[in-house]
From TrEMBL:
Location of the FYVE-type domain: 140-199
Main subcellular location: cytoplasm
Origin species: Astyanax mexicanus
Subcellular location(s) per record: Cytoplasm; Early endosome membrane
Annotated Pfam families: FYVE, SARA_C
SUPFAM superfamilies: FYVE/PHD zinc finger (SSF57903)
GO molecular function: 1-phosphatidylinositol binding; zinc ion binding
Name of the protein this chain belongs to: Zinc finger, FYVE domain containing 9b
Keyword Transport: no
Source domain of life: Eukaryota
Length: 755
């Protein structure tokens, strides 16, 4: 059933609270002079830095950098005329999404030349050689300051060389990683400019096809079995069933037109494309909420600890080509998960190269778990899985810093609560330049050195004359961490999507760049409880103001102004895990007062929905688990066995803290090693029998263990091998830990060894 939403302009700032607006609340923060460290409010400075950054990137991409140090010094002379390489008008996105121009004067460009020249300019590598050949390093003696932001190096601000261009930067400007050919395919530290250039130039495809990844030392590591790249032309092979259960053939020369014809005729089963021996992409054309969409889903991500990914992409009129860019993106997600343990999760995002899905503005995907949306008629993988929503480059700052705002804004745009599951290509961006949003104060949108912390399970409920902030008791440590890092006069935190609410605040940016508050709700349901995306407590209220406290709606969040005495009491209550209530309103007007409650709850946030044990189908919902990233895989007879995660079915409450976690890590690693070694010679037989996902459940105090797959215990001849390998380990651990109540379940996958 289509979940339509109604979008109405919220007037809660006046109707519910009556005495505060966005402008008032923001000025209250600015009047106190509260700005986060390193925040630049001067738009002239920011515009100049943007021009410098864009010029550096253009020099690299266009190959217009000087080829010798002498040429560099010549260009660095402010007295020399400007070259034609860099136009004086730089393109940028206006708040409305249209192209606009920012005029940069010659003196500003000349100043940037002087700054880089004074730091010791060296030849900038051309795009064709960037990352593929070792750069010439700038000596430390020639770099007294960062060659991007100009920060002077000191005992605490250290130098870092970019492994792609050889320049010297501070940790803020050179804190990214990229796989470089001249390092044998290994990751190296790169600066932000080179990172952007390497991604945009399609260097990743060149790396995946590089022969350096076929060398033996790489093959014997997890990197060697990660991803076999797609051919540049044509479609991947098709996997088809022979009619015998479990028996398939691979067809490599099917034409695109014949495959499209099969899909157009309403084929019931999806087409299965082989991206590599362990990763498949299943494609079908479906009708979803009266939209004709490509349904592309992965199969095989679970084996590297990554949730499967589903993309619903609205078809273009008369479209006759498969969206193969999604295949390449699936391979990249798989690669990152297997080689670096980098996973995409709920409200995280991934970035694609320019030109993705036919447009330079398409940036990648924002991932989310479905909640209230209809899933009828969709072929879906087993849990866990995520839907990928196409996002634009102008929306990347929000995907990084505040993804919940972007998700809900998509819901308002397409009238689905809380957001659509489908993506539309070539749409207009929902957000433009970040102008006067309150988030500009709370988030470092330039380097992301600080952002709005989010405590898992924290939610904000807005009701008539009452607001309730609920926090799970089990997340007290997370809240303390955010509390310790916060400014003493301001406490700001992001909230999670509130599934208990029937509506939610959203933030809309107008054509003139202003931010407005709106609300979306489930169609035909009355609004009783409205969710909020964040809260801010500010200690800016004067005791002489005549107010106990002030509360108001700001964009898609809640702002509460209190006195510094109240702020100290609030912080003590949070540290002590005590409930706390604030009364908002004037001292002498009790009939118009509002209340803000902070309540601690025993209820755990729900997670791991739909996940079951391979041993007996036991539900793993709300059972804590830890993902593992193995640096060593166990191989035998062309197969690989990987350990991906461990579930803690039962453990003592006092077994927390770093020492307990370290003990658990050593224990699980010993059990995983013994399990893999015991089954190593049987991997081919297990895979042939369809037992590719395995589990080992260990009860420590009873010295019991059980292994299974597909909802039943492993056959007896496998159990015998496990008994010999595991019993000694379990007994040894039990003696060391005494009668500790600990029950674990480890998850393993058997893969093809494609090295």
């Amino acid at each position: 059933m289509r979940q339509a939403v109604t979008a109405t302009l919220s007037v809660w700032g006046e109707r519910r609270f009556g005495y505060s607006t966005l402008k008032d609340s923001r000025e209250a923060l600015l009047d106190e002079g509260w700005l986060m460290p390193g925040l630049k409010e001067d738009s002239v400075i920011e515009e100049k830095e943007l021009a410098d950054s864009e010029k550096e990137q253009l020099e690299v991409v266009l190959g217009s950098a000087p080829s010798t140090p002498e040429d560099a010094q010549t260009q660095g002379d402010p007295g020399q005329p400007e070259t034609d390489t860099l136009s004086s008008a730089h393109k940028c996105e206006s708040p409305s999404g249209r192209r606009a121009s920012v005029n940069v004067t010659g003196s500003e460009i000349g100043a940037s030349h002087v700054r880089r020249g004074s730091l010791g300019a060296l030849p900038v590598q051309r795009c064709s050689s960037l990352g593929s050949t070792a750069p010439q390093w700038v000596p430390d003696s020639q770099a007294p300051a960062c060659m991007k932001c100009g920060s002077k190096f000191s005992f605490t601000r250290r130098r870092h060389h970019c492994r792609a261009c050889g320049k010297v930067f501070c940790v803020v400007c050179c804190d990214l990683r990229f796989r470089l050919t001249h390092l044998g395919g290994k990751e190296g530290r790169v600066c932000v400019t080179c990172h952007s250039t390497l991604i945009n130039s399609g260097y990743l495809k060149e790396l995946l096809n590089s022969p350096c990844l076929e060398r033996e030392e790489v093959v014997n590591s997890p990197k060697g079995s990660s991803a076999k790249p797609l051919p540049h032309k044509g479609l991947p092979p098709i996997l088809t069933s022979t009619g015998v259960k479990g028996d398939y053939t691979v067809e490599e020369k099917r034409t695109e037109s014949s495959l499209l014809e099969e899909l157009e005729q309403g084929q019931t089963e999806p087409l299965v494309f082989v991206l590599n021996a362990n990763l498949l992409a299943m494609v079908k054309i479906v009708s979803y909420v009266n939209r004709r969409c490509w349904c592309v889903m992965s199969k095989g991500m679970h084996a590297v600890g990554q949730p499967e990914v589903v993309v619903l992409l609205q078809c273009l009129p008369e479209e006759k080509r498969f969206p193969t860019d999604i295949f390449s993106h699936f391979i990249q997600i798989y690669w990152d998960a297997q080689t670096a343990g980098k996973l995409v999760n709920h409200l995280s995002h991934s970035v694609a190269a320019r030109g993705f899905l036919g447009s330079k503005e398409h940036a990648g995907f924002l991932y989310m778990r479905p909640t209230f949306q209809s899933l009828d008629g969709l072929p879906l993988p087993p849990q866990p899985f995520l839907f990928g929503l196409l996002i634009l480059r102008a929306e990347i700052p929000w995907a990084k810093a505040f993804p919940l705002r972007l998700m809900l804004r998509l819901g308002a745009e397409y009238r689905f609560y809380p957001c659509p599951l489908f993506s539309v290509r070539f749409r207009e961006p929902l957000f433009g330049q970040i102008n006067n949003s309150i988030m500009r104060i709370l988030v470092d949108f330039r380097f992301y050195r600080y952002t709005l912390p989010v405590v898992t399970g924290l939610m904000v409920d807005l009701e008539a004359r009452s607001t309730c902030i609920t926090i799970p008791k089990s997340r007290h440590a997370e809240l303390l961490k955010a509390l310790n890092k916060s400014n003493e006069r301001v406490l700001a935190m992001g909230a999670c999507f509130n599934e208990r609410a029937d509506s939610h605040l959203i933030c809309v940016q107008t054509a003139d760049g202003q931010y407005q508050t709106q609300a979306i709700s489930i169609h035909s349901q009355p609004r009783r409880v409205t969710g909020s995306c964040f809260f801010v407590f500010s200690g800016a209220l004067k005791a002489s103001s005549g107010y106990l406290a002030k509360s108001s709606i700001v964009e898609d969040g809640l702002m509460v102004q209190v006195t510094m005495e109240t702020m100290l009491e609030l912080r003590r209550a949070l540290r002590d895990m005590r409930d706390f209530t604030l009364t908002c309103g004037k001292l002498q007007q009790s009939d118009r007062q509002e209340y803000v409650h902070i309540q601690w709850q025993d209820e755990e946030p729900r997670f791991n929905k739909g996940i079951i044990s391979p041993i007996d189908g036991k539900s793993m919902e709300s059972i804590s688990c830890v993902k593992t990233h193995q640096r060593l895989e166990y191989r035998a007879n062309g197969k690989v066995i990987r350990w991906t995660e461990v579930f803690f079915l039962q453990r003592e409450e006092q077994s927390n803290g770093p020492n307990a976690n370290a003990n658990h890590n050593r224990l699980t690693e010993r059990l995983a090693r013994a399990f893999c070694l015991a089954l190593c010679q049987s991997l081919s037989l297990l895979k042939e029998d369809g037992m590719t996902k395995l589990a080992l459940r260990v009860t420590l105090d009873g010295q019991k263990f059980l292994a299974g797959s597909n909802g039943q215990a492993l056959p007896l001849h496998y159990q015998d091998s496990l008994n010999q390998s595991l019993r000694a380990v379990v007994q040894s651990v039990s003696q060391r830990h005494g009668h500790a109540a600990l029950q674990l379940e480890l998850i393993f996958y058997i893969l093809e060894d494609i090295s």
